[in-house]
Please model this.
Amino acid sequence: MKKFRVVHYINQFFAQIGGEEMAHVPPEKREGLVGPGLALKQQFGDEAEIVATVVCGDSYFGENTKQALEEVMAMIKEEKPDIFIAGPAFNAGRYGFAAATVTKAVKEELGIPAVTGMYEENPGVDVALKDVYIVATGNSAAGMRTAAPLMAKLALKLAKGEAIGASIEEGFLPNGIRKNFFDKERGSARAVSMLEKKLADKPFTTEYPMPNFDRVKPNPAVADITKTKVALVTSGGIVPKGNPDHIESSSASKFGEYDITGVDDLTAETFETAHGGYDPVYANDDADRVLPVDILREYEKAGKIGKLHHLYYSTVGNGTAVASAKKFAEEIAKRLLAEKVGAVILTST
Amino acid sequence: MVKEIERAGIPVVHMCTVTPISLTVGANRIVPTIAIPHPLGNPNLPIEEEKALRRKLIDKALKALQTEIDDQTIFE
Model:
């Protein structure tokens, strides 16, 4: 029997080229499997074979998306694959964005089964949830062992034209498509057992999650910025040198509030980044590249803005849970309102 | 974070490089920046040119804050 030809997409980290300092590398193609491809191979057995692995730096893809996608697609096409798999990307945001973007393009342009995998909070999910199957994974690479079998199995089923079950059976993130099936227990019994768990404060899974359309309407424009107090907030982890609050380099559990009274310029001696999700060289060298205190101070003196708020807020947006980020920002907003801040510039890396 | 600040009633502009992520998280006023590790700078430029670049980006952000919008908008 002919083996299905598989092309696998991974980032520079999983290809062991390097971490953030190598995230700028352009795409390259390697013969056969690389890194996490091994876990997929074990699942494929003799039904499919990884013929090539396309590797691309996450920042390269994020910063040159159009060009990177063209280059990656050309490499994939050359291999005439029957199946395409990207990731899993777990909770790595730029990796998830790249994996989802490429998977969607492969499915649309080549018309072959294309599967990716990532954590449900990965921003890549929104890129392609309605277009391709995204297998649900844990939020770190520890989830590889459960993710690889699900991704391989789903890809093989698609390639063989077999029927795909409901998301709960196949392990992909719910994409809004409903499947009818007979459950083992009838509805009344399931409802009572769910209620019992709820009353006992035990975890339970709803069978009908409410859709989450969490959009906030834009606020009216600032009438006159020359009379407005402007505050800086960043998820890029800029902190006073030494990181006095010990903000974590990933999965931050807190934010910091720092006084910049009298500070005209952030220098390598006074400020740095605590962020572990991008190459810190440029921010450590000159943190104004992430938190533009120098220019805003200049504009304050020139009367182009009313005032630069004397406190800025910083956290690390690297694998940080959405719930934590929400909590931080609610508290930050409360403090900004109390100080009559009229506009916020929020920078992200 | 952008969304919670907006929800509290403060106009906010999100300056970031990967704008599709900004759109999915629900930012309303978005200004695209230079690169992930140095959104508001370019280490390859001499310092004065780099500052000029940063001024241009801040000007865009201030303009975005002073522009009425009904929906998510990327200020190129």
In short: The longest helix of chain A spans residues 93-110. Chain A has a mean pLDDT of 94. Chain A touches chain B through 68 residues (CB under 8 Å).
